[in-house]
Amino acid sequence: MPTAAPSRPAAALPAPARRLLTSTSRHRRTWLVLLAALVAWFCAQARRGPKSAAQPRGPTAHKSHGAALRDDDVGTRTSFPPLDDLLDRARLWPPDLNKPLCDLKIYVYDLPPALRLPDKTVKQCRWSAYNSELLLHQLLVDPTAHASTTSHPHNTLYTTNPAEADFFLVPLYPACFLFDCWVKAGWTKTARCGVDDTYIEPVMRYVREAHPHWNASGGADHLLVHPMDFVDGYYTETSRAAMNASTYLVTVGDVRPAPLGSYFRSFRDLVIPSSTHLLNSYRVNPLDYVDEAGRPLVEPRGAASPHRRDNVDPPTVEIFSPSPEPVEAGLRGLARSLVRLVRHVLGLAHVARLEARTTLAIFRGGLGTAADGERYSLGIRSLFFPSDGNTSTPPFSSHVHPGFSSLPGFDIAEWSDNDDYARRLARSRFGLAPPGYTLDTTRIYEYLAFGVVPVFVGSGRTAGQVMPFARDVDWSSFSLSVPRERAHELPEILERVTDAEYDRLRSAVWDVGRKVVLEGREGNVWRLLARDLCRLKRKGVAAGPEIANN
Q1: What is the pLDDT of residue 73?
Q2: Which candidate, 452, 406, 460, 461, places its Cα nearest to that of 427?
Q3: Among 319, 323, 294, 291, which residue's Cα sits nearest to residue 521?
Q4: How many domains does the chain fold into?
Q5: CA-CA distance, 465 to 460, in Å (whole number)?
Q6: Do 262 and 303 belong to one domain?
Q7: Any bridge partners for residue 226, and if so which?
Q8: Are 228 and 359 within one domain?
Q9: Looking at the domain assignment, is residue 127 inside a domain?
Q10: Which of 237, 258, 381, 431, by CA, is between 20 and 30 Å from 356?
């Protein structure tokens, strides 16, 4: 087939160009073969994929199976077969959380009415961060407090027969007592309102004298809940002496040197998750904002009411029950129902109502006071907001900087109303978790509930914080950790996290991280607590066969 004449005569071309054109014409077949070989090589490389996936650098890097070998690590690359699955999966960590370590029974004291907190004080406490005292009790003894009674540990853990009990839970709520006291005293936290001589000591005297169980073990098999930052440090030496033979269930585990970690007894106390206003008081339901896989909905199923505190007394501790879809009347409602049905049948139900997580990082929280200065939050939160270098005004920083809040993708503020905060959580990738007055922050559990990857900044395991159920839950599989000395690098660190790494973390948050949220779903908190209690009793953890050290 004749080719079109070039716009410029060949004779007019320079000599090198004429030679290249002549060579191309004479050896057209050779050039075509070379071109085909080049295309085939590129296709083969594409099928093989990259030699190693990009890994985030610095403290965000997480290599659960060790670092991948590069070509220059070894002289000759050798292929080895993968290991077969172990028949004894108990040799691996983390464990199967559905398999209990032992059969355990917990008896809960029924205190006389005169030793119980007034109903008004209990209701007040349900709107505090100390609500975990009440929720743990309710989860264990009330079978209507959770949605699934068939799999809930209530059926196996709780007993009304003290003779068969391994542990005894004392329904003592001193944190709730003090919260009510501080509210009445205008938030004067030095007020005590007689918590020791009118409440703690009479209850503990009853436990010792009215039943034989405390004296039988010296209190070693008794459980007390202390969800305050300084645990039993708020009470007199007499009260502390009456309680301290027992195991404390605490929300702050801190192994830093004294005085910071003075109140946490790592050999005896167990760390539990904190309750949060958003989840455990206002009952804002994550499944109204994200779907069952943790992906954000374009429009929530049911928005949180700003007046919910005034007209709802939360009856249960269940928070993962999505609100029903609103029923629309008339032909319009029928048409929308048919569209939803067709989408469901075709497997397209999520297409029209899901959107991506477009916010890189979110944080809601305070900055302390001028008296705290840069000591609050170990100085970390002073990086979050713009600073003019004046240490007497927020964020109390001696450095001039624009703050992380000025950066694109960072959603940082001191507060939001519940519905707005829930919507923003559903659209955020990472949730920042710096310390406050202590290493613990309740934001962690809001992040996990909404499928947000927690980022510990100067807190978490690498900062001396003992995380809830750390013997059974691999926190590193669904969170990142940035040491305090690199807090100023946080924006760059998050930007370097690859999409593949983020997807792995997000999936682990939804599949594993949510198990530590304080709620009723399947009784996960008591199921995890039971594992630690088995260890305390040394039940189900007896010595195995001798292991040769060779």
Answers
A1: 47
A2: 452
A3: 319
A4: 2
A5: 5
A6: no
A7: 250
A8: no
A9: yes
A10: 381
Token couple for 446: 């809001």
Q: CA geometry: angle at 48 spanning 46 and 50, to 5°?
A: 80
What is the model's pLDDT at position 52? 40
- Confidence (pLDDT) at 48: 53
Token code pair at residue 295:
């992906």
Residue 173 is assigned to a structural domain of this protein: yes
Q: How many CB atoms lie within 10 A of CB 352?
A: 10
Residue 203: both structure tokens together: 């209850």
- Name the β-bridge partners of 297: 354
Tokens 């405390």 label which residue?
214
Residues of the chain with pLDDT under 70: 1-76, 143-151, 302-318, 322-355, 541-550
Tell me, yes or no, whether 221 and 349 share the same domain. no
Residue with tokens 């009415």: 113
Q: How many CB atoms lie within 10 A of CB 153?
A: 22
Q: Are 225 and 315 within one domain? A: no
Pairing of strands 480-482, 410-413: unpaired
| Domain extent for 375 | 280-324+331-516
Give the closest residue to 231 by CA, choosing from 278, 264, 275, 209. 264
Cα angle 145, 147, 151 (rounded to 5 degrees) comes to 105
450: domain CATH number?
A: 3.40.50
Residue with token string 């004296």: 215
CA distance 417 to 427: 16
Residues 306 and 396 in one domain: yes
Enter the pTM of the model.
Answer: 0.79
Question: Is residue 522 domain-resident?
Answer: no
In this predicted structure, what is the pLDDT of residue 406?
96
* Residue 188 lies inside a defined structural domain of this protein: yes
Q: Taking Cα atoms as reference points, which of 423, 435, 425, 412 lies closest to residue 509?
A: 425
- Plot region of 186 (φ>0 → left; ψ -120 to 50 → alpha; else → beta): left
Q: Does 207 share its domain with 296?
A: no
How many CA atoms lie within 13 Å of 387's alpha carbon, on the beta-carbon side? 24
Q: How many CB atoms lie within 10 A of CB 409?
A: 16
Q: What is the residue whose two structure tokens read 């455990």?
A: 280
The verdict on 260 and 408 lying in the same domain is no
Same domain, 140 and 263: yes
SS3 449: helix
